[in-house]
Amino acid sequence: MPETDATIDPANPVAALCAEGMRAEAEGRPGDARALFGRAWDAAADDYEACLAAHYVARHQTTPADRLRWNAECLDRADRVGDDRVRAFYPSLHLNLARAHADLGDPDAARDHYRRAAGRLDALPPGPYRDWVVYAVAAGLREPGPDPVRDLIDRLCDRRAHGPLALLLPRHAAAPLAADRTDLVTALRMVHASPDLDDRTRDLVRAALAAG
């Protein structure tokens, strides 16, 4: 759920309590934040306000089961609202549910919610928050196992190769959401053409290209 959103009325008393709770989080006062979010839940007078409050209450749960319960409550309330006020909430709602299911050892349910989050990404405007959600969803959808591009990125990090990293990182991060790997392959070819690569790094680039 976006931390700031044009659809959230700052004059709404529940939204104001949630904003105060976020300030407490930022100031390192988790106990105060938890209490403020609990007050927001108690004050919620409709499904929209309950959706807002449940999102923040969920963040302070200490077990995966409780995080799942509160995030499911948040999703249920958003579905009941069913209008544009909650449209931009859905990517992070499904992302949070995916993580809770993953923590509970249910990868199939987690993957379902990652996919549902991916299908809602167009609701988020461009910007750092959208980038963060895109990368988190893509990471959740990434298949386990060997990843030659990740191996190359690790090598580039060790060598502090900032230019190739800036080229590869965003494309690799979002690759599971892309219709194809054209942008990533183009970036790999550009890195391969660099005259500054050592032999080991160039071998890793070739391995990444061979993997498609």
Describe this structure as you would to a colleague.
The structure is a single chain. By secondary structure, the chain is mostly helical. 69% of the residues lie in helices and 0% in strands. Helix 5 packs antiparallel against helix 6, helix 8 (148-158) packs antiparallel against helix 9 (162-174) and helix 9 (162-174) runs antiparallel to helix 10. The longest helix is centred in the middle third of the chain and has 18 residues, at 64-81. The radius of gyration is 20 Å and the shape is elongated. The model has no long low-confidence stretch (mean pLDDT 91).
Condensed summary:
The protein is mainly α and 212 residues long. It has 11 helices and no strands.
The percent range for helix content is 55-70%
The Rg value, from CA coordinates, equals: 20 Å
* Molecular shape: elongated
Order of helix and strand elements from N to C terminus: HHHHHHHHHHH
User: Averaging pLDDT over every residue, what do you get?
Assistant: 91
Separation of the first and last Cα atoms: 34 Å
Total strands: the figure is 0
Strand content: under 5%
| Class of secondary structure makeup | mainly alpha
Poorly predicted segments: none
The main sheet comes to: none
Number of helices: 11
Helix/strand layout:
Blueprint (H helix, E strand, L loop, with lengths): L12 H14 L3 H14 L3 H13 L4 H18 L8 H14 L3 H12 L9 H14 L6 H11 L3 H13 L7 H11 L6 H12 L2
Helix pairs in contact: 1-2, 1-3, 2-3, 3-4, 4-5, 5-6, 5-7, 6-7, 8-9, 8-11, 9-10, 10-11
Descriptors:
212 residues; mainly alpha
